[in-house]
Amino acid sequence: MSNNASTAEGWDEEYVAGRWAFLRSLPESGRYGIIGMWLNLTNSIEDVLDIGCGEGLLYERLQPMGVKRYVGMDLSPASLKIANVDPEIASLRAGDMHTFEPEANERFSAIVFNEVLHFAEDPAAVVERYLPYLKDDGVIALSMYSPNKPNSGANKLIAKLWDATDDASKWDVLDDYRLTSDKKGSVTWRMRLVKPVA
Fold it and tell me: Which among 55, 12, 62, 35 is positioned nearest to 144, based on CA atoms?
């Protein structure tokens, strides 16, 4: 990742250079499939907010499943230009997950954080700030890359988020995965589907 990848310009450079094209590869598809089935089986595929949507890969997986409305937000305007979405269904917006706000009265049946919370100092706080935008009975899908080093910074962030969502007074954990791709050299993702306790 470039030194300025935490800025919109840095992400734009990487998308234009094709740095993130590997996300379209077959070994990356498992986590998209899990998220899609989670949303389908919980009847949460109606209105989806995808935080850190990149070039809209989740939209491409959800569209054949019948997503009715998709809002994708990403820090990189260049990634949004690459996206191939139906404007009747999808709205793509540039923004930062720490400050982004949907349009007035816009609420979602599902909010997805797919490989984006590593860029937050406090992932649990970022997830919680989106709760007002979740419809009653809505779900939140979480996916984070988990390095093989147990004491890595990424795994510490995952542990903090999982500890926060383990609080049964606030969260109902509907599913919890550790997905490993042997094809990608035992790359592992931690995935969790949660809903706030009413």
Answer: 35
Burial 179-192 (b: 16+ CB within 10 A, else e): eebeeeeebbbbbb
137: left (phi over 0), alpha (psi -120 to 50) or beta: left
Taking the model in full, what pTM does it have?
A: 0.86
Residue 63 has, within 13 A of its CA and on its CB side, a CA count of: 15
Contact 193, 141 (CB under 8 A): yes
Provide the residue type at 67 as one letter: V
Using DSSP's 3-state secondary structure scheme, residue 103 falls into: coil
Structure confidence by residue, pLDDT tens digits, 81-124: 888 899 999 999 999 999 999 999 999 999 999 989 988 999 99
Rounded Cα gap, residues 119 and 154, in angstroms: 9
| Backbone phi and psi for residue 113, each to the nearest 5 degrees, phi listed first | -120, 90
Torsion of the alpha carbons at 108, 112, 117 and 123, rounded to the nearest 10: 50
